Amino acid sequence: MVRLLNWRVAISGVLLSVGLAACSSTEEPDYAELQTFEEQVSVNVAWKANVGPGSDEHYSRLAPVYDDGVVFAAERHGNVVALNADNGRRLWRQDLTPATGFSLLGLFRKGPPAKLAGGLTLDGDTLYVGNESGMLYAINKDNGEIQWQSQLEGEVISAPAVGEGYVVLHLGNGMVVSLNAADGEEQWRHEEEVPALTLRGSSSPVISAGGVILGTNNGRAAVLVLESGQMAWDERVATPSGGSDLERIVDIDATPVVRGDQVYMLAFNGELVALELRTGEVVWRRDYQGHRTPQVAGSRIFLTTSESHVVAVDRLSGNESWRSADLYGRSLTEPAVLSGQLVVADRFGFVHWLDRDSGQMMGRYEASDPIQVAPIRAGDKVIVMTIDGRLVALTD
Prior knowledge:
Elements: E1 4-5, E2 8-9, H1 11-23, E3 44-50, E4 65-67, E5 70-74, E6 79-84, E7 90-95, E8 99-102, E9 108-110, E10 116-123, E11 126-131, E12 135-140, E13 146-151, E14 161-163, E15 166-170, E16 176-180, E17 186-190, E18 198-199, E19 206-208, E20 211-215, E21 220-225, E22 231-236, E23 257-259, E24 262-266, E25 272-276, E26 282-286, E27 295-297, E28 300-304, E29 310-314, E30 320-324, E31 336-337, E32 341-345, E33 350-355, E34 361-366, E35 376-378, E36 381-385, E37 390-395
Parallel strand pairs: 2-18
Antiparallel strand pairs: 1-2, 3-37, 4-5, 5-6, 6-7, 8-9, 10-11, 11-12, 12-13, 14-15, 15-16, 16-17, 19-20, 20-21, 21-22, 23-24, 24-25, 25-26, 27-28, 28-29, 29-30, 31-32, 32-33, 33-34, 35-36, 36-37
């Protein structure tokens, strides 16, 4: 399950090896068995829809996105769809699988899977998604037509940031590239030093206050000037330590979260850090490790750690409010934040509702197939996507 590519470690192998070891051993599993609880949230299925074949065994970050009554989703093989959020009816479908020529009947002959991996990002009327071959597509959200496409010099394995007329991507080789949002023409690029051994993933950038905020593969937080790509500041978030190469991995794969004048970063084998957005000065540090993007709601930060603990942290002080270890080792997604609950999914295909104030288990749904990407909130529904390309809309 661990795939080496220029000495990069496939994150799916790192995270799923625990489960494989447990399945092949007669010893007690090193993940939490689900316990009974008093159900306070009754989960119902509103609709199901199929996007395509899914991600197979590949690690995927292609979470659906929602806007104005429409759910947009994509899967590795190349299918991008728009669905009515009320009933799951398909509004349009775009197949990005490359054609290799014409068949005897004069029809396009499809090639290998498109290997979609980076996205989705929605901005205005345009939906952005990229693939492992370095192609970025800009798609009209109303009809699915391709507005433009741009070939880049690196894998697109994280969602691009879009704003102020720019599309900024953090490629798999560590390069940061800015494109013109109107036509996809390159405007500037910034290269970062990449360690010999890293997780297979890149932090999605964030555009805010005229800057591009991102986490790097060498454990640093950085801000680039949006107009030029010049470095404004950088600050170390994680320092390599330990005796093995794996222990010394300090990637920041989680997307930075900006609230007010602060930015929050979470590093693998590192820390959760609050930084001043303007200067990079550290406000506080806390000993949490993970690669899933923290979620901020009100005065709290909600995150899932590398051990699949769900934690609530006070945003201003960094003090822990509560922690739930009930789902440890289950490779949890980042949480979706509802009005009174958090929703997380796991690699066994279960979706869990937790109380926002206490972390107490409130509800559960079994989707059967593993889930790698975070649930999303879509109006009064929660949308989950399984690795076999199936969307499920849930209500409580």
